[in-house]
Amino acid sequence: MEVGFVDLTFQQTPFPDSASAVSCADWLLPSRRLAHIHCVGATRFEYITLAATSTVFVIRDHSRDHSYVVMAEMCRVEKRGRVYLLTLAGTDEHRLNPALLDSIRSAIAGVRSDAAASGGSAALVVAAEGKFFSNGFDLAWARVSPSDRAPLMVPALQRTIADLLSLPMPTIAAVTGHAAAAGCFLALSHDYVVMRADRGFLYMSEIDIGLPITENIMAVLRAKIADPRTRRDLLLRGKRMTASEAAARGIVDRAVEGAAETVEAAVAMGEELAARNWDGEVYASIRKGAFHEACRGIGVAVEDEEAEMKKVASKL
User: Fold this and answer.
1) Dist. CA 290–CA 302, nearest whole Å
2) Spatial CA neighbour of 44 closest among 65, 24, 23
3) pLDDT at residue 56 in the model
4) What's an example GO BP annotation here (predicted)?
């Protein structure tokens, strides 16, 4: 269980007068106002990540001696045949902050555990509700206290990507909306990308907003965007790529019309891959070797030659 604390106030929208959890949930969750929190000293906000699918938010208004308890669904996992479908919940921009990234990691850990217990092969599809797959880092959250918060975001994202790169099954991003900056990086970190053709784009916005890209993240991007011109256009021109163009350039595997159809196509791809009945540990080991620089840079343990040979011998 992971617990986080931060002092807060709510700008523009007043805090609800009622102390009931229901009214607080109605106020907070539909528009995900938690993404627009700014710090002051009077009110204390606590979040406790309990499970893969939800986070408990405890809001304490010390000035009025009220407490509010809210269960917020950040992501959910369902199983369709041999495919685990992890969906980022809500219609917001799915900005990546430690709370959301922790929830994604918890979901991936649950998938890993369930697949190991169930036996057989599987695949993971990651999708999102709303018009955004992810619009990148939660910069509003970071700017509240840059010296304290900004250093937390990149390591949290790196740990999430490391979980994907070490997962013993194929991974597929179902990009049903815009994927920008860190959200684009998250999508491209999967083994396969299925993207909605009639809406959304891939966009590495760092050059436009003046943010550097760390070497660890760049190592993954070099591995996933092999063509130098495509890498140049995404990273140095800030080009917004549609699904059709991204597919033509080889960084998206399939462009599909419609959001629901994109998810279904990704699930079908996952089922097809899972049907190959590959050994998951072997799959993960080969992935680490194929993307050695990326895995080592992002923090995935890469086996040395002696360990690899022992593993080969154990499979004979």
Assistant:
1) 11
2) 65
3) 46
4) fatty acid beta-oxidation
Percent of the chain with pLDDT over 90: 64
pLDDT (average), residues 223-248: 97
- DSSP state letters, 144-177: TSHHHHHHHHHHHHHHHHHHHHH-SS-EEEEE-S
Q: What is the tens place of the pLDDT at every residue in 14-50? A: 333 333 333 333 334 333 333 333 333 333 344 433 3
Taking alpha carbons only, the member of 118, 116, 55 closest to residue 81 is: 118
Q: What's the whole-number mean pLDDT along residues 244-260?
A: 97
Q: Which two tokens stand for residue 105?
A: 């990691």
Is the pLDDT score of 6 beyond 60? no
For 82-99, the pLDDT digits (tens) are: 999 999 998 889 999 998
- Of 57-61, 129-133, 220-224, which range is least confident? 57-61
66-73 vs 54-61, strand pairing mode: antiparallel
d(Cα 64, Cα 15) in Å, to the nearest integer? Answer: 11
Could you tell me which residues come within 8 angstroms of residue 301 by beta carbon, excluding any fewer than 6 positions away?
A: 166
Residue 128: Cβ-neighbour burial (10 angstroms; 0-12, 13-18, 19+)? buried
> CA 143 to CA 150: how far, in whole Å?
8
CA angle 80, 81, 83 (to 5 degrees): 65
3-state secondary structure of 194: strand
**Among 30, 34, 184, 55, CA closest to 107:** 55
Is 201:241 a contact under the CB 8 Å cutoff?
A: yes
pLDDT digits (tens, 9 = 90+) for 141-158: 889 889 988 899 999 999
Report the distance separating Cα 269 and Cα 250, nearest Å. Answer: 17
Smallest CA-to-CA distance from 207 within 243, 181, 228 is with: 181
The HSE-up count of residue 217 (CA atoms within 13 Å, CB side) is: 23
- The string of DSSP codes covering 257-280 is SSHHHHHHHHHHHHHHHHTT---H
